[in-house]
């Protein structure tokens, strides 16, 4: 079941858009709002899958901008702006506000609206499926792609590491919870196969993580043996 907020102060236009929206998918729910205050209260209260709104509401020329800011703060719900404001000026403004698309009134037909709306609806469906997926499917905060040799990401942020450090990180993470010996780590470096060099690479890895996460403590030094990846935050002093 998909739920859409339609924010438009002109009643005939609102009813027309509602009819178009309801024709896209059986069972779709459309809530119509006509004022900024009512719309903002609904956005805060409800979890909409998609929002269609006008920029001007009553005498407030940029009421829609304020509503988009509320949406971005609370939910980040996809927004389709339908306004009489000139697209040449306002499309870029709406993009900067993270609105997904912009249609200028009197310049589009029903088919144009439906194409745009249905594309956004498909994106909203994917977004909803991701949000509802069990958390256990994505338990790891670290993501590695050693085959492509692309930079790893930590909690969604890129970790800037040279290739050798990436290989060492991958070796530690693949055996997380276990000690990876110096001898094992020698196997993933092409030169400088000595303990001092391995320690320097590990130090580089730690520094790179701490640039984006100052509290990072996920690599444990095991004296005389090697290193171990541990669950960050689980170590005790």
Automatic annotation (TrEMBL):
Q: From which source organism is this entry?
A: Leeia aquatica
Query: In the UniProt record, does the keyword Transcription occur?
Result: yes
Q: Does the keyword Transcription apply?
A: yes
| Gene3D superfamilies documented for this protein | 3.40.50.2300, Winged helix-like DNA-binding domain superfamily/Winged helix DNA-binding domain
Q: In its UniProt record, which GO terms are filed under biological process?
A: regulation of DNA-templated transcription
* Record-listed 4-aspartylphosphate modification sites: 54
What this protein is called in its record is: Response regulator transcription factor
**Molecular function GO labels:** phosphorelay response regulator activity; transcription cis-regulatory region binding
| Keyword terms, alphabetized | DNA-binding, Phosphoprotein, Transcription, Transcription regulation, Two-component regulatory system
Q: InterPro entries from the entry?
A: CheY-like_superfamily, OmpR/PhoB-type_DNA-bd, Sig_transdc_resp-reg_C-effctor, Sig_transdc_resp-reg_receiver, WalR-like, WH-like_DNA-bd_sf
